[in-house]
Amino acid sequence: QVQLVESGGGLVQAGGSLRLSCAASGSIFSINAMAWYRQAPGNLREVVASITSDDRTNYLPSVKGRFTISTDNAKNTVYLQMNSLKAEDTAVYYCAADISVLAGTRDGYWGQGTQVTVSS
Fold it and tell me: What are phi and psi of 75, to 5 degrees?
């Protein structure tokens, strides 16, 4: 059983910063990629940032230069450092991971979500 547990959401003023964390635990053979998604009310869930096991990153254009995704492989943890936050960044942020529990297998997992609210 694999679990993703997120932390670090909250309320912040526009221009402020937050750091989200997501720790993967359980029977893990390897983590192939991790990502952060977000979903605002009335909107579709969108990918904010992703990182592969060889540290290739991708960002949603609207967050590029403000957000940074990183990992601590020893802790099976992914971070999202969010700077210069804007009201439009307000959403529930979800961690996602592409994990192999056995060699040759791959499955997707989701965290429970953490609320980020940016006040203007």
Answer: -105, 5
d(CA 74, CA 89): 29
Q: Which amino acid is at 89?
A: D
74 touches 12 (CB < 8 A): no
What is d(CA 36, CA 40) in angstroms, rounded to the nearest whole number? 14
Tens digits of per-residue pLDDT, 64-77?
999 999 999 899 99
Q: What is the pLDDT of residues 90-110, one digit of tens each?
A: 999 999 999 999 988 999 999
CA–CA distance from 29 to each of 32, 91, 101, 107, 114 (Å)?
Answer: 10, 31, 5, 12, 26
